[in-house]
Design brief:
- It is a single chain.
- The protein is of the alpha+beta class.
- The protein folds into two domains: 30 residues; 122 residues, Immunoglobulin-like (Sandwich), CATH 2.60.40.10.
- The protein is built from two helices and eight strands.
- Strands 1-3-6-5 form a four-stranded antiparallel β-sheet.
- A hairpin with a 7-residue loop joins strand 7 and strand 8.
- The longest helix has 26 residues.
- The termini are far apart.
Length: 157
Amino acid sequence: MKKLLIVAALAFAGISTSAFAQDKKADKPAGEPAIQFIETTHDFGQVEEGPDYTHAFKFKNTGTTDLIINNVNTPCGCTSPGWSKEPVKPGKTGEITATFHSAGRLGQFTKTLSIQTNMGDGKDQFVTIRGEVKEKGSMPAKAGDAKPATDAKAKKQ
């Protein structure tokens, strides 16, 4: 009798689990967005203290549904984010900007931005900027040096 009850309980558990898995599968969307960055780290090199320095991290939605950037968090007030506010369609591109405010911040810096999206895995994505801030007037101007952000939009973000 005990064996019959155990077999019946296991059979019921198996059927219940199978039905639950099918219901869960039916609720899942047909596809998901996916973000693919061209680069996840940018090195400004040596920059002069004072100006804001901005880099745009370009990405592509390699998934099958719209990608939405919900939020971008920065580690401190010395870095400001900006991002594509509209959904990024599959196969299309967007960007996330990181603006570093160098005034009063001499020395090396590494700042990692945390990106929250609507991707199904729930994991944040990350991009990093780094460089070294030198005292104003201590660096000779050279071709190819990092350029400060010049437009008002980049400074506000």
